[in-house]
Design goal:
Oligomer: single chain
Number of strands: 9
Radius of gyration: 20 Å
Distance between the termini: 52 Å
Shape: elongated
Bound molecules: NADP nicotinamide-adenine-dinucleotide phosphate
Largest sheet: 6 strands, parallel
Helix content: 40-55%
CATH topology of the largest domain: Rossmann fold
Number of domains: 2
Low-confidence stretches: none
Order of helices and strands: EHEHEEHEHEEHEHEHHHHHH
CATH architecture of the largest domain: 3-Layer(aba) Sandwich
Mean pLDDT: 96
Structural class: alpha/beta
């Protein structure tokens, strides 16, 4: 067993940066590749090596990807300069933490397998702040051998790993969890607008909800955004819609009607297409809910 694998990190976005910082703090040897190289600069300054292409991962024990979507994952195993373009070298395991469709993960796993590399799907629950605090959790699936190789890295990145299968089941678990998250966000948005229009300030309503049985860590995390209207993204409304669409795609493929997920996807799309919430945090759905109610929300500090 490799106690502490060397790690080639692919994707230094909002999540990737804070995750690599945790690995560097824990003493891992890390190389970083990002499509836009400058975004990896702070990590290189902190001691990570810079990789020129994903193919450079072949000189590490384990590749770990944290990229946006199916297209980005596809790019990582591009035959031209992707992970396996020059043979696998010393690379044994590819862990993907991105939220992607099970179909895209299966394609990645098939290419990995053809190159003699094991694939672990390990999507993460927790925004960058949660990761920084060491509170993120992982759904993980893959063979026992490669889950074991990934374990020291996952243990350094978060507080718990839930093994849910031997294939790409973890991506299904993540889509279901994020579907529930989006539905909750939309419900909170609608109901705080209802409260506000009926004369109950958002901070009072949310303080009660958060103390009740239907309050949750998520409703508490999102309370400042809903009250102060600081919509600096932890996860964008576009990113969240991407996950809703992945869940709907899986539902269509398997003939599973998802009426509440469908309605939520429309609410997120309206927030993007109207321009009201484009590029903002997913809590920006509250702006659409308020507009529909003819209400102008003021930040309440
Ligand atoms: N933020 C959260 O709260 C959160 C929580 C849990 C899971 N996730 C998931 O984690 C993943 C990353 O999220 P994030 O918030 O870090 O997103 P982000 O800040 O937008 O970063 C996206 C990353 O993907 C890369 N990328 C995008 N398209 C690409 C392409 N075609 N080829 C190669 N690389 C590409 C970006 O590279 P560039 O820098 O070149 O654009 C960047 O490194 C997503 O799957 C997301 O659903 C996010």
């Amino acid at each position: 067993m490799i106690a502490r694998p060397t790690v080639a990190w692919l994707g230094a976005g909002r999540m990737g940066v804070v995750m690599v910082e945790r690995l560097l703090d824990a003493g891992f040897e890390v190389g970083v590749w990002n499509r836009t190289p400058e975004r990896a600069d702070p990590l290189v300054e902190r001691g990570a090596a810079r990789l020129a292409t994903p193919a450079d991962a072949r000189s590490y024990d384990l590749a770990y990807s944290m990229v946006l979507d199916d297209g980005a994952l596809e790019r990582l195993h591009d035959p031209a300069d992707g992970l396996f373009s020059g043979g696998r070298g010393g690379l044994a395991t590819w862990v993907d933490g991105s939220t992607v469709s099970p179909a895209a993960a299966r394609r990645a796993a098939a290419d990995a397998s053809a190159a003699g590399v094991g694939f672990v799907a390990a999507p993460v629950s927790g925004n960058p702040g949660v990761v920084k605090a060491g509170r993120a959790i992982f759904a993980a699936s893959g063979t026992a051998e490669h889950l074991e190789r990934a374990e020291p890295v996952l243990a350094a990145l978060g507080r718990a790993t839930h093994v849910v299968g031997e294939g790409v089941e973890a991506d299904v678990v993540k889509l279901a969890t994020n579907g529930l998250l989006a539905i909750t966000m939309q419900a909170l948005a609608e109901l705080v607008v209802l409260g506000e229009k009926a004369g109950v300030p958002r901070d009072r309503l949310l303080a009660f909800i958060n103390d009740s049985a239907v309050g949750s860590p998520f409703s508490s995390y999102k309370t400042p955004a809903l009250v102060d209207l600081d919509l600096t993204p932890t996860f964008t409304v576009e990113g969240q819609r991407k996950d809703l669409r992945l869940a709907l795609g899986l539902g269509a493929e398997l003939e599973v009607p998802l009426p509440v997920v469908s309605t939520t996807e429309v609410a997120f799309s309206r927030t993007i297409s109207s321009g009201i919430g484009a590029g903002l945090d997913l809590a920006a759905v509250v702006l659409t809910a308020a507009k529909d109610a003819g209400l102008v929300l003021e930040p309440r500090g």
